[in-house]
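Sequence design from tokenized structure. All designs in this work follow the same two-part layout: the structure record, then the generated sequence. An example of the structure record is given first.
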């Protein structure tokens, strides 16, 4: 077995005799390389495309060598790659293999995949299977906050079961009590949109604020937007910048764009068009089309 390093020759590692230790090195290499992508090494030319395209090969080889949890990681790479185009068929196949191998939470991950990426295209039988997987997971572990949250989404919107926003809301409250931040944000959605509960802006804002203070990216962005626009609260650009920055720091491209507009126009802050340009670039790199915003401010 060869020593692991940031500059490891992945081709050499892929030729090593199969073992669990090698599988762990392959996953470590892939994770490290993804960190390089996240920090922009591809944009700077430090990381080559050829090297980065071997990430799924590393995960798949690791899974085949006995590190079965890598099937789930591989599936999410295919569904939401750090670069390149998604391949949902390959993602579904990898998760099917994980389910067959009895990987922990593989059934839950397959249901999550179908909900977030195949919501409009999943067949009726695929939806029903997804709901069954999540229901069984929650039945076997009622304290599984992620499972309860996902069950709430499927129940609210009728994915594999008759839609029941009221039952879904109760499940979201249960998931939030178990510590799931996404569930707390969904409670905001229920109150803000009146999903089988009366529209209540005060409760909606309170739920959004709690989620934001706990670090939920969309909630932090929303709180920034509320402060920037004065929706439901007095307009406060200092607070808007604070929450946009927090959301941007965890990768929310809409927050990056919102910050860019503030600094490009000097809305409540000292104008900084160079910083605004950098923020637009970051948002664009994250996949958000900001061309119309650039045109508005001449950047």
């Amino acid at each position: 077995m060869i020593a692991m390093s940031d500059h490891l020759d992945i081709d050499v590692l892929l030729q090593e005799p199969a073992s669990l230790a090698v599988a762990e090195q392959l996953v470590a290499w892939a994770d490290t390389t993804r960190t390089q992508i996240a920090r922009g090494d591809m944009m700077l030319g430090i990381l080559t495309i050829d090297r980065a395209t071997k990430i799924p090969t590393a995960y798949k080889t690791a899974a085949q060598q006995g590190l079965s949890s890598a099937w789930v990681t591989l599936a999410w790479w295919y569904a939401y790659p750090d670069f390149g185009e998604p391949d949902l068929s390959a993602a579904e196949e990898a998760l099917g293999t994980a389910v067959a191998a009895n990987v922990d939470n593989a059934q839950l991950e397959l249901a999550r995949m179908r909900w977030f990426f195949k919501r409009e295209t999943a067949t009726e039988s695929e939806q029903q299977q997804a709901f069954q997987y999540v229901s069984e997971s929650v039945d076997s572990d009622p304290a599984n906050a992620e499972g309860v949250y996902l069950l709430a989404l499927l129940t609210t919107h009728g994915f594999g079961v008759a839609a029941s926003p009221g039952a879904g809301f109760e499940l979201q409250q249960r998931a939030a009590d178990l510590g799931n931040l996404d569930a707390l944000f969904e409670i905001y959605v229920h109150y803000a949109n009146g999903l089988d509960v009366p529209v209540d802006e005060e409760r909606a804002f309170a739920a959004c604020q709690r989620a934001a203070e706990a670090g939920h990216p969309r909630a932090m962005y929303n709180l920034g937007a509320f402060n920037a626009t004065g929706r439901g609260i007095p307009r406060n650009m200092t607070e808007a910048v604070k929450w946009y920055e927090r959301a941007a720091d965890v990768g929310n491209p809409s927050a990056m764009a919102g910050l860019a507009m503030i600094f490009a126009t000097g809305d409540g802050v000292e104008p900084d068009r160079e910083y605004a340009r950098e923020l637009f670039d970051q948002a664009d790199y994250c996949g958000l089309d900001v061309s119309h915003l650039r045109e508005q401010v001449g950047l």
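The chain has three domains: 8-103, 105-213, 215-299. We note this feature because it recurs in several other targets discussed in the main text.
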